[in-house]
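Bench notes, bay 3.
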Amino acid sequence: MGKKRRQFTDKFKAKLALEAVKGVKTLTELASEYQVHPNQVSEWKKQLLSHAPELFSRKNGGASKSEEELTAPLYEEIGRLKMDIKWLEKKL
């Protein structure tokens, strides 16, 4: 029976990649400390550096989409309240 592949959490990958970017320890030292192949550490470091600008970009839709999801119901509520105010003004 073959070996089962190890799966790492995103949090673990990010932690290890950040340590590699800091450069306090070499990739080999990090790899032996966390029992991961040095090539894997290098790959995660490259992924972190290549995708870091996207974290601060609003073009990717991550932050702006959640903003839209939050504001849409609020605008609907504002519209309903304005209609209620107009209706109440007519009643008076």
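Next record in the batch:
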Amino acid sequence: MRAMKQLGIAGLLAALMFFVSCGGERETSDRPEKITDEPLTQRQQEPDTTLQEVAEVNIRAVGGETLESMTYDQDTIQVKVGTLVKLTFTNEGKDPKMIYNLVFTREGYSAQAAQKGGKAGASGNYLPDSSLLLAATPLALPGQSVKMEFTAPDSAGVFEFVNTYPSETPLMKGKLIVKE
């Protein structure tokens, strides 16, 4: 009887050791090991433009040997509301002083945008404050092309574009017409 008792105890111990040793891997937690005071940041999601209408627009600064004669080769651009506009701006100026950009503003604000862009200076990239801006290209040096993308407003209307780099370029302006 004593042998059976010992055999039973040995069997229980063996079974217990088997279950304990087969416990598998250590359980992991989804909780971070350290709690920090860092704020959560949300990753910016790229808008889905798969079904969005796209308009490819090419505008050139052309016109001559003097600052006063420079102009955009188009004075009107027409797109539909909500269109993704892929713009290429090429500066065909020859003189090193012929540095230009293309800034889109609400109608009636192009002169103010040009003035405020000049006051913003190089540190502000010659751009007016954002309340006047719809979109803007980077500055283009003579012979340089720059590209940008923006989405046309969601409502029909007339907007303007102008050069905001300080220079005598009264002809460098135009209209962006957004249609339904």
